[in-house]
Amino acid sequence: MILVLGGAGYIGSHMLKVLREVGEPHLAFDNLERGHLAALGESPFLAGDLRQPNDLTRLFAEHRIDTVMHFAAYIEVGESVKKPAEFYWNNVYGVLVLLEQMRLAGVSQIVFSSTAAVYGEPDYVPLDEAHPTRPGNPYGETKLAVERMLAAFGDAYGLRSVCLRYFNAAGADPAGVLGEDHDPETHLIPLVIQAALGRRPSIKIFGDDYPTPDGTGVRDYVHVLDLAKAHLLAVNHLRRGGASATYNLGTGHGHSVKEVISAVERVSGRPVPVEIAPRRAGDTAQLVAASDAIQRDWGWRPQFGQLDQIVEHAFRWFEAHPEGYRTPL
Ligand SMILES: NC(=O)c1ccc[n+]([C@@H]2O[C@H](COP(=O)([O-])OP(=O)(O)OC[C@H]3O[C@@H](n4cnc5c(N)ncnc54)[C@H](O)[C@@H]3O)[C@@H](O)[C@H]2O)c1
Q1: Does the CB atom of residue 169 touch ligand 1 within 6 A?
Q2: Could you tell me the CATH superfamily of domain 2-169+221-249?
Q3: What's the predicted TM-score (pTM) here?
């Protein structure tokens, strides 16, 4: 059975849906601090906190878990700069507690949600996994610290792990019942859609003088269901006895802020009011993934690789749920 930590969150809830669809026995675990009960669907759920060893002791005693998926973390870069203690406490100490409990319970396989933020300012794009890791903020530092902890636990205790470094997770389940609902929302596609729907006065473009084709920042948007499918491949790999591995997950195509705005205007048929603001400290011009390694090794391919598809699915969710999960389903 697979344990999905952070199953009530944005990516975790899409993972649960994919696990239900393939008939894979699983259990969701979440403290609901940032997640939503309604996002869990029909998946079995246990409320608890990673940082409470007893919550996990009981869980591992009562359920036969063979593989853990870890989505449960704080994720907002700006918040991590202001509250590094909370980020290390949740994102690093929480994983230490988890790994200890896994070791005691004899569970030795984990898939970990890492991030492009481990790379920091790129020396070159697209970024491959061999690019140096120099995180530019505490969030990225916590994720890199966990990657290193997993490697050390692998060497010493035989833990096998797959670290998936996502670029910009985006989109939503096409059925329109699951989607992104972060508070505060900081991700570009939801913000632009909310501006198109009139729920925000405008969208701010932070910097239009970057060395990119239209001067705005370029990112690699990868569909949340394509991320979930990569997790299934990771579980198969670990169950076959595969060695620990680290992979990037992105489409390999970058899109600028202005391209995202145009895509939202196309999909929604509504204009998006725009304001130009100065660059934000710490933002990079371009972050695009080379995901050749996971494509070569496991045959992973983004099913929803087109920006318009990603935006369309996200739009469907926001149009039907203007208040996110607070809108009755
Ligand atoms: N969203 C992105 O673009 C992106 C990009 C790269 C990496 N990631 C990583 O993917 C993972 C999931 O991201 P998301 O966007 O779904 O985040 P999210 O905030 O929507 O989901 C995280 C979930 O974990 C739960 N959680 C947090 N701390 C917990 C704890 N101590 N105990 C139990 N539950 C806890 C929250 O309540 C929430 O439901 C994170 O680890 C994040 O760092 C996300």
Answers
A1: yes
A2: NAD(P)-binding Rossmann-like Domain (3.40.50.720)
A3: 0.97
